[in-house]
Specification:
The complex is a heterodimer. By secondary structure, chain A is mainly α. Chain A has eleven helices and no strands. Helices cover 81% and strands 0% of the residues of chain A. Chain B has two domains: 7-238, P-loop containing nucleotide triphosphate hydrolases (Rossmann fold), CATH 3.40.50; 243-301, 2-Layer Sandwich (Alpha-Beta Plaits). Chain B has a six-stranded mixed sheet with strand order 6-7-8-3-9-10, sandwiched between helices. Chain B has a four-stranded antiparallel sheet with strand order 2-1-4-5, with helices on one face. In chain B, strands 12-13-11-14 form a four-stranded antiparallel sheet. Classes of the chains: A mainly alpha, B alpha/beta.
């Protein structure tokens, strides 16, 4: 019971911090413009005729999943910042499970990532991308799992980092290739063998494909756009998350206490 | 197991050897702390104090030994231990993005004092009353709902004190309090701890370089090079290590020394005075026995600092 209270209060802390950080909110709202507006528009103009489906919707759904995944993962890395500011001491000596600390962080950063969705959806309207209310609800619900997987991915990275500097150097290296391997901007049905293997290892692939499998369900483009079934993606997300969180928690505790 | 019912902290043969270190940071340390007492762990930098307190507060694994708090093992029953302790860290561990009260509220919820509420106004009255009471004592009531980014070091320290006491811990660990951030006139005990100690029989476990902090302690443990080199009450440490003495002066210093030698009273001849080792109860008899007219008498009682320097055999470094 105390762990649930702890999860809520740790999550609430992250959200409160966001609301007080105007610059972060502004950047979060501007960022989608680059991805959806510039990249999506460019691809739509050049490639959509050959692909046989609306590229803007393809990129848009990909960017939603990618943003939730990336934002939550990056937020978890802020635990390293807490460590450097000595705040983590306060969390680590609290009588709550270590999992509660990490789940609380994931939940908080998930909330934070959803504020970025506002920017994306507004940008979508500008470019004429409109969802029906039921589609929007499905996307928002499916997005929770994309954010959760991103958070779990953040936990495993964070557990192996000692300081913010190394995290800042390594995190983009592990994240950016996934933008392309997971098919956010371009279809990945056909890939050379080595890229095919990498794309199926990249956790973001399952977040992006899961969200698309929900959005495109029952639509004629489904077979052209979606790689795996919803249940297959869901299983992959659950397995990846469990491995990342359990291994990440173990390493996190080990690195903290066994010096 | 604890040696008796009143023991709240039990440490037996504690060893901590860091992975890449040549020798153990803590090397076979044993001590017990009585419930409700004020215990001070003293020692110079690198003595092993912080390592010991880190093991006690469950943030560091021990290499070997037995450590329990209130009968709970710090490794296998860490959650039980954590719920019974409060910690004032060496470096303030506050979230600078939150207000003072939000920092305290977060702590209170983590320790099960109250259920999660998104705002102060929704928190239960018992919580508000306790926060207000502590804030009033520490004189930060008007700043309670302000962001702490602009707080001075002293105000942050006060906030840490409030936070550490909000869940009524059985043991309060106070790590190396900096000299400029606690009201010196009152001292460690005299501050807020007094309130909680009286109310809840709280034990205070202090680590410090500053000896005057430990003068009010019930028990003092002095560490050096990972080992305990002295243990006892401040009075015991003083009496065992340094003797009281009387410093006297006379116009006729030569005559005084001759008389003392003749009467077989041992003394140390300083340039302008003569020191004679003497306990408090024998001072009157000593002075009566001297016939040479005395112009000045100074009774010297050693401070804990002098005893401490004697014990560790080196000059301490203060930070």
């Amino acid at each position: 019971m105390r762990d649930i209270q702890a999860i809520l209060t740790i999550a609430s802390r992250d959200f409160t911090k966001l609301l007080r950080d105007r610059m972060r909110i502004i950047i979060g709202l501007i960022f989608p413009f680059v991805f959806v507006g510039v990249l999506g528009g460019s691809l739509q103009a050049n490639l959509s005729q050959d692909a046989g489906f609306d590229f803007m919707y393809f990129v848009f759904t990909g960017v939603i999943a990618q943003t939730l995944f990336q934002s939550t993962a990056a937020g978890i890395i802020s635990l390293i910042e807490d460590k450097e500011n000595d705040y983590s001491q306060e969390l680590f000596v609290a009588p709550i499970s270590r999992q509660a600390i990490l789940i609380g962080k994931i939940l908080g950063e998930t909330l934070v990532s959803y504020t970025q969705l506002i920017g994306i959806l507004v940008m979508g309207l500008v470019f004429g991308i409109v969802f029906s209310p039921s589609e929007l609800v499905m996307i928002l619900v499916a997005g929770l799992l994309c954010a959760f997987l991103g958070g779990a991915f953040g936990v495993i990275i964070m557990a192996n980092m000692n300081n913010q500097r190394s995290a800042n150097q390594i995190f983009p290296f592990l994240l950016f290739p996934q933008f392309f391997l997971s098919g956010v901007f371009t279809p990945i049905k056909e890939l050379p063998p080595y890229l095919f293997i990498l794309s199926r290892i990249a956790p973001m692939t399952y977040a992006v494909d899961f969200l698309r499998s929900i959005y495109y369900a029952g639509k004629p483009e489904y077979d052209k756009v979606v790689l795996h079934s919803t249940s297959y993606n869901l299983s992959a997300i659950i397995i990846f998350s469990l491995i990342f969180i359990s291994l990440g928690t173990y390493l996190f505790i080990k690195n903290e206490r066994n010096k | 197991m604890p040696s008796d019912n009143s023991t709240i902290i039990h440490v037996q043969d504690l060893i901590k050897h860091y992975k890449k270190a040549d020798k153990s940071a803590v090397d076979g340390v044993s001590f017990d702390v009585a419930a409700g007492s004020f215990f001070a762990l003293l020692g110079p930098n690198g003595a092993g104090k912080t390592t010991t307190i880190s093991v006690l507060t469950t943030t560091l694994s021990k290499t070997s030994g037995e450590v329990t708090i209130d009968g709970y093992d710090v490794e296998t029953q860490a959650t039980e231990v954590r719920s019974r302790i409060g910690i004032i860290f060496q470096n303030p561990s506050l979230d600078l993005n939150l207000t003072a009260e939000e920092n305290v509220r977060l702590h209170a919820i983590l320790y099960g004092v109250a259920s999660y509420r998104p705002t102060y106004s929704l928190m239960p009255d018992s919580y508000k009353k306790k926060v207000d009471e502590l804030a009033d004592i520490l004189d930060i009531t008007k700043d309670l709902h302000k962001p702490i980014k602009t707080f001075s070091g002293g105000m942050k320290r006060k906030l840490e004190i409030i936070r550490s006491l909000i869940h009524n811990p059985s043991v309060l660990f106070w790590m190396n309090p900096p000299r400029d951030s606690t009201p010196r006139a009152e001292g460690i005990c005299g501050l807020t701890c007094k309130i909680s100690r009286k109310k809840h029989n709280m034990t205070i476990f202090l680590t410090t370089h500053y000896l005057e902090e430990a003068e009010g302690a019930d028990q003092v443990c002095v560490m050096n090079h990972g080992k305990i080199v002295a243990h006892g009450s401040p009075a015991q440490l003083k009496s065992s290590m340094i003797k009281n003495y009387v410093s006297i002066k006379a116009k006729d210093m030569e005559g005084l020394t001759r008389e003392l030698a003749k009467k077989k009273i041992s003394f140390t001849n300083r340039e302008k005075s003569i020191d004679i080792a003497c306990t408090d109860s024998k001072i009157h008899g000593l002075l009566k026995s001297i016939d040479t007219p005395i112009t000045s008498v100074q009774i010297h009682t050693p401070s804990l600092e002098e005893a401490y320097l004697e014990i560790i055999g080196e000059k301490i470094q203060t930070t």
